[in-house]
Write a structure and sequence with these properties.
Layout lengths: L1 H13 L1 H37 L2 E6 L5 H9 L3 E5 L1 H11 L1 H8 L9 E5 L5 H12 L5 E5 L3 H15 L1 H26 L1 H9 L4 H35 L2 H7 L9 H22 L5
Antiparallel strand pairs: 1-3, 1-4, 2-3
Helix pairs in contact: 1-10, 2-7, 2-8, 2-10, 4-5, 8-10, 8-12, 10-12
């Protein structure tokens, strides 16, 4: 085994430019795949974060509305009624400079309202709820909501997920081509030595074993570079204050262990399988 491993390293070092190009190309492709999957994971979580932080505010002409509450209960929506006094407290917390002016008034001008929480990724469901609230009665003064951004994010998620298989297939193709070409060049460079080994009675597995290990080592080196580049990229974004300002209090998620392990296993296994097919008919 040590002979095969030493021979595999020697093969890699004997064609340094070819090996380096193969490792860098595969690692770049794999980095793109890991970052793409991380982006999808973060996009799903960010949508959850935005939905959890989204509310529908229903401003009322008067007091509590039984029909509206019945509608909200029918759809199992969480809601809270905010009266004039609580509305003034909330206003004072958000706008302390203007709160004294309202407090001095004999009649509180702030309308009473319902604060409705949503828990669904279906934008059509959002719209149906909003339309139902608006048509629930004349007591509804206005409805405020901010689901437009969530709608855009959901459309972006749907579009991004469609390209997931394409990017995965592209990485497999790049890995197969680069490993195959590298092993073929390395193998045929030592054809004279291989002929001598065959004359001496060496088995096919003994001759080809180092090349299978070489393919595996190329895959492992590419995986190590890709993991490091992916983690650094996410860390760089997570440290960018201007980028974090856009995300608010959402914390970026790093590539998951399951995701990295699956991608690494596929690339390592694919490298060995490709080398076997490449040398299958080699003499």
């Amino acid at each position: 085994m040590m002979f095969h491993l030493k021979r595999a390293w020697f093969n890699m070092l004997s064609t340094p430019l070819v090996t380096l190009v193969a490792i860098l190309t595969i690692s770049i492709a794999l980095t793109c795949l890991i970052l793409y999957q991380t982006f999808l994971h973060n996009l799903r979580n960010y949508i959850d974060y935005r939905i959890d932080g989204s509310r529908i505010v229903v401003y009322m002409h008067g007091d509590r509305d039984g029909d509206l509450e019945a509608f909200l209960k029918r759809y199992n929506l969480n809601f809270r009624f905010i009266d004039h006094k609580e509305a003034l407290v909330i206003f004072s917390q958000r706008y302390p400079d203007e709160s004294d002016l309202l407090s001095a008034m004999e009649v509180n001008p702030l309308p009473q309202s319902y604060l409705v929480s949503m828990d669904s990724h279906n934008i059509q469901y959002f719209r149906s709820i909003i339309n139902g609230i608006k048509s629930s009665g004349d007591s509804v003064l206005s409805v405020e909501y901010s689901f437009h951004e969530i709608s855009v994010l959901l459309e972006a998620l749907d579009l991004t997920e469609r390209f997931r298989l394409i990017i995965g297939a592209f990485v497999v193709f790049v890995c197969a081509v680069m490993v195959s070409n590298t092993i073929r060049i390395s193998y045929y460079k030592y054809m004279d030595d291989i002929r001598i080994l065959r004359i001496l009675g060496a088995s096919s597995m003994f001759i080809k074993g180092p090349y299978f290990l070489e393919a595996f080592l190329i895959g492992v080196c590419s995986i190590a570079i890709a993991i490091g580049a992916s983690l650094y990229s996410v860390y760089f974004l997570a440290s960018d204050t201007s980028f974090l300002t856009i995300l608010g209090s959402y914390a970026l998620h790093y590539p998951t262990m399951e995701q990295v392990a699956l991608n690494s296993s596929i690339v390592a296994l694919l490298s060995v399988i490709v080398s076997m097919f490449t040398l299958r008919g080699a003499s």
